[in-house]
């Protein structure tokens, strides 16, 4: 199996077996103000949102995780089936392997998502570095591969810097993103991969015409840490050390959400989001939706029902937060009062 595909299998194994979690999202410093007299019925709370021209039943995104190896097909089938059942959005992992390898097993790991979720909002995924090699037609092939409703372009240059085989040429990527955003047949989401997006970067992406920003901030799964484990396995000592040094690098998710939503109207808050309360806090900070990846991985290995169960727990947590802030709709939650404390406040003031 070629290198790109094998790497996808390595990533899933490391996430399942090793310590790849970091802290510091900033959500612990965000307090939503309690409403003692909400004057609404919890069971009548409306969690639906309009997202890039589609309606979702809840402001939840199953974040891009995997694809590109036959071993990941079951995971993507479970995730997509659950997205279909609950009415949330889902993204696939990088489609580079599907575009570059002529292998039916690799392709099925992606195409399975539309088969399992004929009506769900699904988005594809290519790397910003690959846009220097791909023209818009190639990105359209990634759209067609899963009949995508949108395309994510991921920014993962710290991860690439730690990979022994990483692509560390970041020149011209913003121009390439702008080119794709202006010509692609579906909306374009630009997403980080665990290190966050600053206000200035969000401004540049907004000016480039992207349709949504997924901040993927510091505080969740550390791809620097994952690549450090991979580097250790092949004896790449320097990359292993660099991966550990930058394990907790980045802009905290809460900060990135606030700063990005100040300049772009459609922001997904991800990176260490671990509960419906985190999603509620992110929406109060300005996000349109909250995204999670790792919390769905183990349930996806068990099957679709386990993923649905995880989603239903998140929904109950979110509805509870909405109830006790007096928010009958997601639009009202976006106006909920909150207080910023501690290091997050210092970060924003600094």
TrEMBL record:
Main location: cytoplasm
UniProt-annotated binding residues for substrate: 7-8, 94-96, 159
GO molecular function ontology, one term from the record: FMN binding
Subcellular location: Cytoplasm
Catalyzed reaction equations: isopentenyl diphosphate = dimethylallyl diphosphate
Residues that hold FMN according to the record: 64-66, 94, 125, 191, 221, 272-274, 293-294
InterPro entries from the UniProt entry: Aldolase_TIM, FMN-dep_DH, IPdP_isomerase
One GO cellular component term noted in the UniProt record for this chain: cytoplasm
Biological process annotations from GO: isoprenoid biosynthetic process
Annotated family: Belongs to the IPP isomerase type 2 family.
Subunit structure of this chain's protein: Homooctamer. Dimer of tetramers.
Role according to the record: Involved in the biosynthesis of isoprenoids. Catalyzes the 1,3-allylic rearrangement of the homoallylic substrate isopentenyl (IPP) to its allylic isomer, dimethylallyl diphosphate (DMAPP).
Name of protein: Isopentenyl-diphosphate delta-isomerase
Organism: Natronosalvus hydrolyticus
Upper lineage: Archaea, Methanobacteriati, Methanobacteriota, Stenosarchaea group, Halobacteria
């Amino acid at each position: 199996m070629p290198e790109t595909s094998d790497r996808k299998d390595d990533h899933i194994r490391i996430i399942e077996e090793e310590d790849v979690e970091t802290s510091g999202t900033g959500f612990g410093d965000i307090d939503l103000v309690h409403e003692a007299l909400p004057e609404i019925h919890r069971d009548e709370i409306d969690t639906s949102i309009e997202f890039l021209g589609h309606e979702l039943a809840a402001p939840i995104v199953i974040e891009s995780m995997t694809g590109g190896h036959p071993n990941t097909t079951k995971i993507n089938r479970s995730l997509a089936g659950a997205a279909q059942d609950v009415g949330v959005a889902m993204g696939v992992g990088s489609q580079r392997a599907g575009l570059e390898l002529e292998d039916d097993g690799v392709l099925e790991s992606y195409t399975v998502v539309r088969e399992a979720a004929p009506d769900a909002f699904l988005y594809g995924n290519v790397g910003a570095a690959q846009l220097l090699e791909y023209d818009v037609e190639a990105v359209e092939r990634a759209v067609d591969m899963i009949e995508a409703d949108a395309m994510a372009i991921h920014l993962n240059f710290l991860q690439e810097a730690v990979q022994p085989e990483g692509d560390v040429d970041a020149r011209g990527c913003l121009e390439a993103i702008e080119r794709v955003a202006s010509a692609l047949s579906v909306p374009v989401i630009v997403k980080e991969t665990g290190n966050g997006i600053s206000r200035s970067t969000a401004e540049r992406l907004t000016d480039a015409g992207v349709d949504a920003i997924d901040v993927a901030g510091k505080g969740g799964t550390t791809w620097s840490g994952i690549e450090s484990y991979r580097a250790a396995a092949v004896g790449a000592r320097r990359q292993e050390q660099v991966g550990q040094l930058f394990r907790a690098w980045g802009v905290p998710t809460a900060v990135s959400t606030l700063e990005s939503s100040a300049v772009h109207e459609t922001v997904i808050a991800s990176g260490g989001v671990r509960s419906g309360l985190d999603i509620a806090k992110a929406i109060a900070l300005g996000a349109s939706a909250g995204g999670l990846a790792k919390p769905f991985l183990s349930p996806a290995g068990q099957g679709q029902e386990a993923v649905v169960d995880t989603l239903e727990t998140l929904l109950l947590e979110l509805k509870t937060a909405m109830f006790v802030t007096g928010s009958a709709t997601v639009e009202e939650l976006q106006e909920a009062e909150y207080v910023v404390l501690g290091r997050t406040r210092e970060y924003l003031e600094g």
